[in-house]
Amino acid sequence: MNALPRKPRILALSGGVGGAKLARGLTRELSVDELIVVCNTGDDFEHLGLTVCPDLDSVLYAVAGLADDARGWGRADETWNFLDALRAMDGESWFQLGDRDLAQHVQRSAWLRSGLSLSEVTARLGRAHGVRHSIVPMCDEPVRTQLRTAEGWLDFQDYFVRRRAAPLVHDLRYVGAAAARASLAWPAIEPQLDAIVICPSNPYLSIDPILAVPDWHSRVRERRAPVVAVSPIVAGDALKGCAAKMLREFGLAVNPVSIARHYGELLDALVIDSQDAKYANEIEQLGLAVHVTQTVMRNDDDRGGLARTVLDFARGLRARSLASRRA
Ligand code: FO1
What value does the mean pLDDT take over residues 164-186? Predict the structure, then answer.
């Protein structure tokens, strides 16, 4: 396994897609000793006998420069021979596995079957792709996100991909999270942290599963460094995925104020998009610091730029809180 940085400055919590973009930006701004990215594994599932870890893979592929940016998941320059052959046999083709991506799932599953932990397997996959930064699963035990819908409890991928996120969602649960242990030893890391960054990922589907692991929840709650989130909601919508749909179904406004309220006391500050500047006051009234900037990441310049902005903002907050503690 890659040695984890002993003195990381930034711990990022991430899902796939939007989170992976900021994670890539952070790896461009921070050295391998300064960053750890903790990924959601609540989306993981067993499919065709393979263990598929979509968010870990989205982050690994994004950081390695292998991601398909337009699709938001899987690899660029993909071919689909396996899927076509499977379809011709009337196999389970609702979840699209590209040929190159398939190799990742086959190799991961073989390593897991040989007894390696998901953390070790992820480090090996990262090394194989030339990733030097630490990208770790939130825990080694399986955790599975399920949604209570009008059709009953559904497994995440069944809801999200097979049913195209159409069923109305009433509730969520993260099966296995309560008994899971965080993948990282904390005492060695915490004192050096400048900030915990919550990437612009779906709070219910990507960040809450991480926080449902009791170790992660207490670490975030008892942090010394500021927790800074980037809103996944921009101009009344989610850039990708179903965060906006879920907010609506829970009777909440689709704006960054709902994101701030959702994280509540776990959050010190929120970065919101310039298009949502009008919400800054309302969020400040909740006791949070706010930074308004362009958060939409179309290319690597945007990803690096947003990472820089978030880091400067977080370090400013950290310096202010240290100064006020000294005063
Ligand atoms: N998302 C889809 O909407 N359709 C797919 O067929 C699909 C396949 C897929 C294969 C590998 C992988 O790593 C991710 C894949 N995703 C697909 C994305 C994934 O289901 C979700 O985007 C994430 O779990 C949400 O972060």
Answer: 94
Q: Is the CB of 73 under 6 A from ligand 1?
A: yes
Q: Is 227 helix (H, G, I), strand (E, B) or coil?
A: strand
Same domain, 218 and 255: yes
CA distances from 187 to 8, 50, 182, 212 (A): 12, 34, 12, 20
What integer best gives the mean pLDDT of the chain?
A: 95
For 201-223, what is each residue's pLDDT tens digit? 999 999 999 999 999 999 999 99
Residues 6+ apart with CB under 8 A from 2: 123, 126, 127, 132, 134
In whole angstroms, what is the distance from residue 11 CA to residue 90 CA? 44
Distance (Å) from CA 291 to ligand 1 centroid: 31
- Model-level pTM? 0.96
Confidence label for 2 from pLDDT (cuts 50, 70 and 90): low
Q: How far is the CA of 299 from the centre of ligand 1 (A)?
A: 21
Torsion of CA 72, 78, 82, 88, to 10 degrees: 80
- Measured in Å, residue 73 CA sits from the centre of ligand 1 at 6
Ligand 1 atom closest to the Cα of residue 19 is 26
pLDDT of residue 248: 96
- Domain span including residue 170: 145-175
In a domain, 2, yes or no: no
Q: Are 304 and 297 in contact (CB under 8 A)?
A: no
Residues 83 and 152 in one domain: no
Closest atom of ligand 1 to 156 CA is 24
Contact assessment for residue 33 and residue 7, using Cβ atoms and an 8 Å cutoff: yes
DSSP state of 322: H
* Beta-carbon contacts of residue 290 (< 8 Å; ≥ 6 apart): 269, 270, 271, 272, 280, 283, 284
In ligand 1, which atom is closest to the CA atom of 54? 13
71 and 102 part of one domain: yes
Quick: pLDDT tens for 95-150.
Answer: 999 999 999 999 999 999 999 999 999 999 999 999 999 999 999 999 999 999 98
